[in-house]
Amino acid sequence: MHMVSGMQDFNFKDLEQITEYGSGYHAQHPVIILFWEVFHEMDLTMKKKFLVFLTGSDRIPIHGLHSIKIVIQKVKDNTRLPVAHTCFNLLDLPPYPSKAILQDKLYNAILNTEGFGLV
Prior knowledge:
Blueprint: H1 2-5, H2 12-18, E1 20-22, H3 30-41, H4 44-55, E2 71-74, E3 83-85, E4 90-93, H5 99-111
Parallel strand pairs: 1-2, 2-4
Antiparallel strand pairs: 3-4
């Protein structure tokens, strides 16, 4: 049944551990630290919406979140919203100057997206 509906074991620490970074970001970069703080403060519903935003689906693969390859890369224009490239699980994340701005921009991007609508 997992192959049809996806796993329901949402261990989001796995997602943080396996995420790769590009264009000057790394796990200890101040913007990335703020990103993960904002992410882990989200409720489950918002985290699932983030998965839809980033991957096109709120389902976890049969092998768990650690089997998703996610890349967060820096883009220069911090006036823009984050952009997700769902085919590559790639997040373009501008270097926002504060946690509040990062949260506002990220939530705005997540809440104004549409997934593939696959069931």
